[in-house]
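User: Could you go from structure to sequence for me? I need the amino acid at each position, not a summary. Structure tokens:
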């Protein structure tokens, strides 16, 4: 029989391990925050840390008060924070008498405030008549807008439809995606509504494909803007053209939109591939009629759902501003911190944290608050220093970009900047993450200046972003009647000293959103 014995014993072992201190973790977090996130973080710390103060000379009403009144206000803030701490439990499981005395004292001091009928009370420390900036910001913040589905359901509720069509239409609208297209086929819709127990109409009859077809037609003809609920791009465009034909006021306009409808229904594949001669031959359209129809088609929307709901684009605030110094003939950088408040550790609470006459629980709480406030202030100062040093190194290495543009961007690995500044490469990465730089060339992400590259035949370094810019310039200067192939673009780059394979040209062209040569070709009488 196999016997397993377990023994416990003590053993000494030497080893090394790296652990990040809380202060270092906070410093890395602050460094990585962009400007707007840093503002929000500071506001949160001001609300939660009693020892952290905002310094605004000339605007802080408390600075105008006598010192005795300022001490009273700070005591009130401290009591509010201490009131949120758990009672200290003794070994026998009971709370200390001092805790009950403190709670009783708070209740006595704020008895009037607790007995008021109002649901909002002026926080301790705020002067009478002083504005509540947080409440003002919340009141002025825009309300959440209706989603696309909510708006379409609202439209549909006002349409005059038969009960079964109205019920089926509500189900279909729930499947419209953000682009405005029907996001599922009828089989999927029928299976899912049956699984949810919604397969019966108000009159008890079952939902079927024939009713969905009728409801979809009603939805497409009712909802605005026209083109919504199309099952693909082709149907989306066809719905819009049919609406234009209904609204046409002249025979010429009806003929023009009729040509667009012919292109969509009969020659859509050739249209996507820019096979103009085949379209002319099979449709009987002249080149002028085709060009006029294509101009009209450009007025249609591929994603009508995006016209209903405005996509909220988050604002971008630059962290660094770079300007040209005329006197020194160099580019100078400064941090964009005009909206960041000046911070300090409360001197009074710093003294109280060391005062033996103060209750130990209060001293411990204040010591932790002072330490946290000091760490935050030091982290913000270190963020300023590191970010500015990294930007100055970028300006030094990328001066040609600032003077001549994107095609003169040089390769700049982060490890090179880290070695130059004597910091870790991870610090450089955090310093440039999600940061934006305002330059004479516009607002650009700071990370754009860090990229790999290649070397030209004459020994000059050029970044891959600069190569992409050259590809774009070559395409913009080509003859539209005879566009360059990908191999020809590679040949033009070789003339400039850049060796690039054809498949790499294809990759860069697709990243730039440039179609292939056959789709860029512009047909004309001289072909």
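Assistant: Here is the amino acid at each position, in order:
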């Amino acid at each position: 029989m196999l016997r397993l014995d377990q023994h416990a014993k003590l053993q000494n072992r030497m080893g090394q391990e790296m652990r990040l201190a809380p202060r270092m973790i906070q410093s890395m977090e602050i460094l990585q925050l962009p400007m707007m996130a840093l503002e929000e973080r500071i506001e949160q710390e001001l609300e939660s840390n009693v020892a952290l103060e905002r310094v605004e000379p000339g605007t802080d009403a408390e600075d105008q008060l006598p010192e005795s009144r300022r001490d009273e206000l700070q005591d009130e803030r401290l009591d509010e924070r201490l009131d949120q701490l758990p009672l200290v439990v003794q070994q026998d499981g009971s709370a200390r008498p001092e805790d009950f005395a403190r709670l009783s004292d708070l209740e006595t001091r704020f008895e009037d405030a607790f007995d008021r009928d109002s649901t909002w009370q002026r926080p301790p420390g705020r002067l009478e008549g002083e504005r509540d900036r947080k409440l003002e910001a919340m009141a002025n913040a825009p309300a959440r807008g209706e989603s696309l589905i909510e708006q379409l359901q609202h439209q549909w509720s006002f349409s005059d439809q038969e009960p079964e069509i109205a019920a089926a239409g509500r189900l279909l609208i729930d499947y419209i995606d953000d682009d405005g297209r029907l996001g599922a086929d009828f089989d999927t819709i029928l299976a899912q509504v049956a699984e949810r127990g919604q397969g019966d109409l108000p009159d008890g009859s079952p939902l079927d494909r024939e009713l969905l077809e009728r409801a979809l037609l009603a939805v497409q003809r009712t909802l605005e803007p026209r083109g919504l609920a199309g099952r693909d791009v082709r149907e989306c465009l066809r719905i819009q053209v049919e609406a234009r034909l209904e609204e046409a006021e002249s025979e010429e306009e009806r003929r023009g939109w009729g040509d667009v409808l012919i292109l969509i229904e009969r020659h859509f594949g050739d249209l996507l591939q820019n096979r103009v001669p085949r379209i002319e031959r099979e449709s009987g359209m002249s080149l002028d009629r085709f060009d006029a129809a294509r101009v009209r088609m450009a007025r249609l929307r591929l994603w009508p759902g995006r016209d209903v709901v405005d996509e909220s684009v988050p604002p971008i605030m630059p962290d660094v501003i770079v300007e040209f110094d005329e006197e020194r003939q160099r580019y100078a950088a400064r941090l964009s911190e005009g909206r960041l408040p000046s911070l300090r550790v409360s001197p009074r609470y710093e003294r109280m944290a060391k005062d033996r006459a103060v209750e130990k629980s209060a001293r411990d709480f204040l010591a932790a608050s002072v330490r946290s406030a000091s760490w935050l202030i030091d982290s913000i100062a270190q963020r300023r220093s590191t970010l500015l040093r990294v930007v100055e190194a970028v300006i030094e290495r990328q001066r040609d970009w600032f003077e001549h543009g994107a095609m003169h961007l040089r390769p700049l690995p982060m490890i090179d900047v880290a070695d130059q500044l004597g910091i870790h490469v991870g610090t450089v990465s955090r310093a440039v993450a999600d940061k934006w730089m305002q330059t004479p060339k516009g607002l650009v992400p700071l990370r754009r200046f860090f990229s790999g590259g290649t070397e030209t035949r004459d020994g000059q370094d050029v970044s891959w972003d600069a190569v992409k810019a050259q590809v774009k310039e070559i395409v913009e200067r080509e003859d539209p009647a005879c566009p360059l192939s990908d191999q020809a673009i590679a040949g033009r780059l070789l003339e400039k000293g850049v060796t690039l394979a054809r498949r790499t040209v294809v990759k860069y062209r697709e990243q730039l959103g440039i179609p292939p040569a056959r789709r860029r070709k512009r047909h004309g009488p001289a072909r």
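One structural detail worth keeping in mind: Residues 245 and 257 are 6 Å apart (CA to CA).
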